[in-house]
């Protein structure tokens, strides 16, 4: 990377000292200005890793965020101590994204850095000690005690030691006191040593030693000499069989993976003997975790409607950076993405495709892999850190030009993005809740694309209201796909009235007669069924039938969820678990009943209703392992499962031929939720899960169980009438000041003492209210959940004018207010959390 200030600043003898703003991992919301010493000026620029002194004692590593000629006003800038690398670790566009994110989401740029760098690239440093060159034991004013002498002697031997080394030498636990004393006595110096934690994947291979590989006679001699040893012979034969031979010489350089012999059932001890006797040798190679091979895939033939949509997208990109592709489920958005990605790559640009978390393990990725092979990197949140560093390095080296990934893939070191696609752009999992930066990856992706002057394509069957609003305002382009690909039709919807069935005694184990019939029919035709309930566990809570007591979490303000598996009560907020109580803690009654429906309970009741069916469950509890989700999907895909019960995990991107029935157990639970987005989300979830049915030639059936079949939303969902639903909801949002008509900033105040939390929240609320920006303030109120993990929570909400000026002013003043709060003697231990555009 070129040094940035070469162009920006005049070079001359009496040049002002140059300064660098450094991003440091400290909880202070800004960068810090340091002087660039002349000796380092040549090899430093934006994105370089540097070492600086922070405060009196600390030495930290940070990243250069900016280079300029303006000295800081409030303090004397200290010099940068050292530069760590010969080139930048992150590029200027990444830093601009970080800076935007810190400002927009009201967090520290150090926090963004933390989220952005895989920990293998993080600036980890370790404190080490060395002898102070000025120290002379003879003349020193301070005598050293025995233990200090031991350390000093060891240092003479080794030059430098870590704290851990010292602890090992002395055989004691905490060394800090001794080190501090040695520093005070000026005997040693403490310094920071930086290390990279990335360890590439290494493979053990074996090959013939040169003598046997290149000399036919020697090899024959060898075989003669081991003729009585069949196990060794077998190994050599296997080797020669796997390694190509050319002109009678084994092409031996690359050797063979060592594990092949074990896999072939050959003797490990014979292999060892051959290595010991100098016949085979072992060596290690660094390998990529990603397959390179490109399996041939059929060329894509877009349908007429798809082709027209694609042409329209490209045409609208001429005028607008962002286009919304509104295509019903099964319309083939993926195929359009693929052709657009191919074109962008062919033009030399990089491409990023964002997918919601869970969609990443499905055949969507397999499908993309077939088309893009080794050019494609996958960035999954369940990947190990080393795997992530490999994708990072792949992008950096240019080997990977296309990344498909979860939200954090926006942080990869792209330098020439041409196209960013956000699939299922309405998905709430694009929003990061904790920790900061609390960003919305769709919005950040649009900013990322803008920084690269690239295009963004947002795709969804049920666009977020924000995006649809922007499209209607002509800020975004807009393209529709109204038909499913091929012969497939949208499914037929049925409302099943839970209360009516109950009255007539037709409700069995939470299933209406209609749902049972449809499931039965599907099973008879050997088709598959999906059952959706967005609640894991067995029952949301248990309740004493005599006095109404409900077991709750001691640390959080919520009831405990009953999990039949393991007979446990669990808190879904803090992870607390306990055995299921058999008697009421309040009145001693033994009549404790499970209330409400969780996936476990549905799985159990379906097993009773359909004893012959093979039933599986997909929720957080059954998919915790890295491949748990994939395995369940494979089982379902290969027809080993008839009915799959699941949470919102089953709403995303599943594309199975034989699913013809989708049941929604309790639509009311999605609909009646105290949140302004509840309607929007219900429309999206129900439409999406319904979209899994009948994706091929057979038309699907969707059964929605509800206690309020008259609710208008069902009519609109069933008719696919997104626009009217949108218009009606937007009327409400406008009337009651909700996004996208206003911008929401939520600040929560957390403390372990109720009184302190409340007082701090009031105080802060007052400061926020005084900010001279047009706004509506709500609160402070106890959070929807008033206590989590022993922390009481109060919330203040500001609804701001949409103008960026109002927002910038508010955020700026809010920052000042928070600094004032944090400096207040009563509120030192209070935590404040700012969430911009909360969900
Ligand atoms: P969406 O993402 O819009 O819900 P998909 O991209 O999953 O839809 O497409 C639905 C199904 O139709 C998939 O199985 C896909 O492979 C198939 N399909 C869509 N378009 C084409 C096409 N042009 N050629 C062949 N198959 C297609
Ligand atoms: Zn009781
Ligand atoms: Zn809890």
TrEMBL record:
<comment type="similarity">
    <text>Belongs to the helicase family. PriA subfamily.</text>
</comment>
<dbReference type="Pfam" id="PF18319">
    <property type="entry name" value="Zn_ribbon_PriA"/>
</dbReference>
<feature type="binding site">
    <location>
        <position position="584"/>
    </location>
    <ligand>
        <name>Zn(2+) 1</name>
    </ligand>
</feature>
<keyword id="KW-0238">DNA-binding</keyword>
<feature type="binding site">
    <location>
        <position position="547"/>
    </location>
    <ligand>
        <name>Zn(2+) 1</name>
    </ligand>
</feature>
<comment type="subunit">
    <text>Component of the replication restart primosome.</text>
</comment>
<feature type="domain" description="Helicase C-terminal">
    <location>
        <begin position="579"/>
        <end position="738"/>
    </location>
</feature>
<feature type="domain" description="Helicase ATP-binding">
    <location>
        <begin position="314"/>
        <end position="481"/>
    </location>
</feature>
<feature type="binding site">
    <location>
        <position position="587"/>
    </location>
    <ligand>
        <name>Zn(2+) 1</name>
    </ligand>
</feature>
<keyword id="KW-0413">Isomerase</keyword>
<comment type="function">
    <text>Initiates the restart of stalled replication forks, which reloads the replicative helicase on sites other than the origin of replication. Recognizes and binds to abandoned replication forks and remodels them to uncover a helicase loading site. Promotes assembly of the primosome at these replication forks.</text>
</comment>
<dbReference type="InterPro" id="IPR027417">
    <property type="entry name" value="P-loop_NTPase"/>
</dbReference>
<feature type="binding site">
    <location>
        <position position="556"/>
    </location>
    <ligand>
        <name>Zn(2+) 2</name>
    </ligand>
</feature>
<feature type="binding site">
    <location>
        <position position="574"/>
    </location>
    <ligand>
        <name>Zn(2+) 2</name>
    </ligand>
</feature>
<dbReference type="Pfam" id="PF17764">
    <property type="entry name" value="PriA_3primeBD"/>
</dbReference>
<protein>
    <recommendedName>
        <fullName>Replication restart protein PriA</fullName>
        <ecNumber>5.6.2.4</ecNumber>
    </recommendedName>
</protein>
<keyword id="KW-0067">ATP-binding</keyword>
<dbReference type="InterPro" id="IPR011545">
    <property type="entry name" value="DEAD/DEAH_box_helicase_dom"/>
</dbReference>
<feature type="binding site">
    <location>
        <position position="571"/>
    </location>
    <ligand>
        <name>Zn(2+) 2</name>
    </ligand>
</feature>
<dbReference type="InterPro" id="IPR005259">
    <property type="entry name" value="PriA"/>
</dbReference>
<keyword id="KW-0479">Metal-binding</keyword>
<keyword id="KW-0639">Primosome</keyword>
<keyword id="KW-0862">Zinc</keyword>
<keyword id="KW-0378">Hydrolase</keyword>
<dbReference type="Pfam" id="PF18074">
    <property type="entry name" value="PriA_C"/>
</dbReference>
<keyword id="KW-0235">DNA replication</keyword>
<dbReference type="InterPro" id="IPR041222">
    <property type="entry name" value="PriA_3primeBD"/>
</dbReference>
<dbReference type="Pfam" id="PF00270">
    <property type="entry name" value="DEAD"/>
</dbReference>
<keyword id="KW-0347">Helicase</keyword>
<dbReference type="InterPro" id="IPR001650">
    <property type="entry name" value="Helicase_C-like"/>
</dbReference>
<feature type="binding site">
    <location>
        <position position="544"/>
    </location>
    <ligand>
        <name>Zn(2+) 1</name>
    </ligand>
</feature>
<dbReference type="InterPro" id="IPR042115">
    <property type="entry name" value="PriA_3primeBD_sf"/>
</dbReference>
<dbReference type="InterPro" id="IPR041236">
    <property type="entry name" value="PriA_C"/>
</dbReference>
<dbReference type="Pfam" id="PF00271">
    <property type="entry name" value="Helicase_C"/>
</dbReference>
<keyword id="KW-0547">Nucleotide-binding</keyword>
<dbReference type="InterPro" id="IPR040498">
    <property type="entry name" value="PriA_CRR"/>
</dbReference>
<dbReference type="InterPro" id="IPR014001">
    <property type="entry name" value="Helicase_ATP-bd"/>
</dbReference>
<feature type="binding site">
    <location>
        <position position="553"/>
    </location>
    <ligand>
        <name>Zn(2+) 2</name>
    </ligand>
</feature>
């Amino acid at each position: 990377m070129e040094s940035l200030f070469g162009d920006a600043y005049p070079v001359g003898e009496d040049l002002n000292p140059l300064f660098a703003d450094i991003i440091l991992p400290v909880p202070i919301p800004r960068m810090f200005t340091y002087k660039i010493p002349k000796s380092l000026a040549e090899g430093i620029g934006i994105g370089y890793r540097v070492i600086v002194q922070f405060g009196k004692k600390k030495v930290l590593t940070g990243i250069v965020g900016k280079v300029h000629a303006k000295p800081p006003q409030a303090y004397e800038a200290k010099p940068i101590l050292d530069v760590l690398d010969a080139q930048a670790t992150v590029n200027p566009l990444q830093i601009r994204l970080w800076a935007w994110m810190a400002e927009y989401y009201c967090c520290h740029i150090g926090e963004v850095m933390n989220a952005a760098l895989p920990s293998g690239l993080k600036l980890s440093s370790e404190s080490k000690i060395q002898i102070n060159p000025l120290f002379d034991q003879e003349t020193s004013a301070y005598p050293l005690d025995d233990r200090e002498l031991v350390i000093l002697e060891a240092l003479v031997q080794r030059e430098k030691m870590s704290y851990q080394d010292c602890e090992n030498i002395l055989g004691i636990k905490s060394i800090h006191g001794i080190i501090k004393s040695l520093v005070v006595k000026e005997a040693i110096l403490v310094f920071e040593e930086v290390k990279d934690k990335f360890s590439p994947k290494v493979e053990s291979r074996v090959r013939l030693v040169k003598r046997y590989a290149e000399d036919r006679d020697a090899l024959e001699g060898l075989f003669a000499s081991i003729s009585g040893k069949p196990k060794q012979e077998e190994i050599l034969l296997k080797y020669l069989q796997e390694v190509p031979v050319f002109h009678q010489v084994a092409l031996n350089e690359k050797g063979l993976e060592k594990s092949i012999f074990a896999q072939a059932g050959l003797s490990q001890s014979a292999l060892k003997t051959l290595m010991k006797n100098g016949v085979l040798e072992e060596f290690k190679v660094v390998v990529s975790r990603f397959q390179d091979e490109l399996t041939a895939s059929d060329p894509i033939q877009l349908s007429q409607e798809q082709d027209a949509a694609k042409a329209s997208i490209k045409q609208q990109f001429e005028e607008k950076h962002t286009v919304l592709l509104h295509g019903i489920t099964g319309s083939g958005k993926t195929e359009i993405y693929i052709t657009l990605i191919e074109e962008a790559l062919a033009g030399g640009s990089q491409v990023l495709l964002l997918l919601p978390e869970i969609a990443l393990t499905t055949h969507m990725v397999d499908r993309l892999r077939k088309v893009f092979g080794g050019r494609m990197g996958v960035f999954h949140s369940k990947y190990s850190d080393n795997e992530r560093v490999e994708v990072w390095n792949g992008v950096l080296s240019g080997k990977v030009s296309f990344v498909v990934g979860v939200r954090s893939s926006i942080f990869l070191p792209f330098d020439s993005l041409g196209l960013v696609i956000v699939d299922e752009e309405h998905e709430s999992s694009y929003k990061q809740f904790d920790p900061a930066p609390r960003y919305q990856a769709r919005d950040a992706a649009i900013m990322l694309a803008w920084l690269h002057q690239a295009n963004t394509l947002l795709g969804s069957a049920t666009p977020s209201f924000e995006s649809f609003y922007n499209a209607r305002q002509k800020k975004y382009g807009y393209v529709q796909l109204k038909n499913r690909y091929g012969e497939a039709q949208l499914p037929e919807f049925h409302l099943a009235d839970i209360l009516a069935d109950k009255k007539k005694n037709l409700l069995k184990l939470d299933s209406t007669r209609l749902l049972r019939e449809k499931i039965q029919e599907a099973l008879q035709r050997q088709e598959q069924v999906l059952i959706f309930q967005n609640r894991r566990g067995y029952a949301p809570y248990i309740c004493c039938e005599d006095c109404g007591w409900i077991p709750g979490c001691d640390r959080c303000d919520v009831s405990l969820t009953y999990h039949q598996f393991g007979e446990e009560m669990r808190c879904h907020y803090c992870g607390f678990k306990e055995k299921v109580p058999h008697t009421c803690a309040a009145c001693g009654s033994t009549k404790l009943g499970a209330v409400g429906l969780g996936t476990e309970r549905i799985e159990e009741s379906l097993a009773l209703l359909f004893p012959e069916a093979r039933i599986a469950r997909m929720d957080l509890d059954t998919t915790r392992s890295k491949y748990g989700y994939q395995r369940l999907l494979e089982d379902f895909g290969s027809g080993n499962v008839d009915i799959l019960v699941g949470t919102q995990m089953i709403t995303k991107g599943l594309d199975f031929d034989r699913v013809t029935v989708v049941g929604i157990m309790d639509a009311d639970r999605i609909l009646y939720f105290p949140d302004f987005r509840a309607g929007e989300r219900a429309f999206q979830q129900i439409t999406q899960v319904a979209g899994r049915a009948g994706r091929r030639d057979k038309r699907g059936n969707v059964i929605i169980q509800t206690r309020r079949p008259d609710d208008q939303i069902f009519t609109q969902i069933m008719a696919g009438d997104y626009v009217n639903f949108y218009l009606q909801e937007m009327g409400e949002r406008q009337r009651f000041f909700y996004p996208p008509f206003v911008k929401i900033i939520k600040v929560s105040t957390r403390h372990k003492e109720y009184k302190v939390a409340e007082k701090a929240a009031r105080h802060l609320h007052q400061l926020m209210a005084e900010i001279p920006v047009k706004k509506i303030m709500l609160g402070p109120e106890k959070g929807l959940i008033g206590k989590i993990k022993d922390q009481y929570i109060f919330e203040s909400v500001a609804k701001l004018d949409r103008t960026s000026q109002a927002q910038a002013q508010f955020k700026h003043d809010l920052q000042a207010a928070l600094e004032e709060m944090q400096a207040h003697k009563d509120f030192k231990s209070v935590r404040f959390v700012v969430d911009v555009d909360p969900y």
